Amino acid sequence: MAVNEFLADRIRNYLLDNHIDFFEKRMFGGLTFMVDNKMCVGLIKGKMMSRIGPDAYKDALLKEGCTEMKFTGKPMIGYVFLNDEATDLEVDLEYWISLALDFNPLAKASKKNKEGLGKNQDTFLSY
User: Fold this and answer.
1) In this structure, is the dihedral angle defined by the CA atoms of residues 23, 84, 103 and 10, taken in order, positive or negative?
2) pTM of the entire structure?
3) Taken in order 7, 65, 61, 69, is the CA torsion positive or negative?
4) Which of 35, 47, 67, 75 could pair covalently with 40 via S-S, beta carbons 3.0-4.6 A apart?
5) Rounded-to-integer distance, Cα 33 and Cα 56, Å
6) Distance, CA of 95 to CA of 74 (rounded, Å)
7) What is the strand order of the sheet 23-27 is part of?
8) What's the CATH architecture for 5-105?
9) Does residue 5 register a pLDDT over 50?
């Protein structure tokens, strides 16, 4: 499934406008926006993904257009999928990105990202 380029541009512009250092990485058949070498938000399977952390997870699932993100059939606590309805308005998109950015300092980097970008260094765009 192709990445929603319009939504990718909206995410990119928000991060740039707020002077967030990030890079983009193709993964899981989508596009992920990495902050501090950690997955922050992304576009996967035609939906936006936001890494909001376990503390915000339960309340987030009560919001319109937010669903749990599953990997191998099991929910990934702290990660949510957002449909178009949840990100249609700019204020809503900003909410989900801000929630992910708030959690980012607490998030753990993957083992291969602790020592650098890993073997896929040619798959990202840095801003």
Assistant:
1) positive
2) 0.86
3) negative
4) 35
5) 20
6) 25
7) 66-71, 74-82, 47-51, 38-44, 30-35, 23-27, 124-126
8) 2-Layer Sandwich (3.30)
9) yes
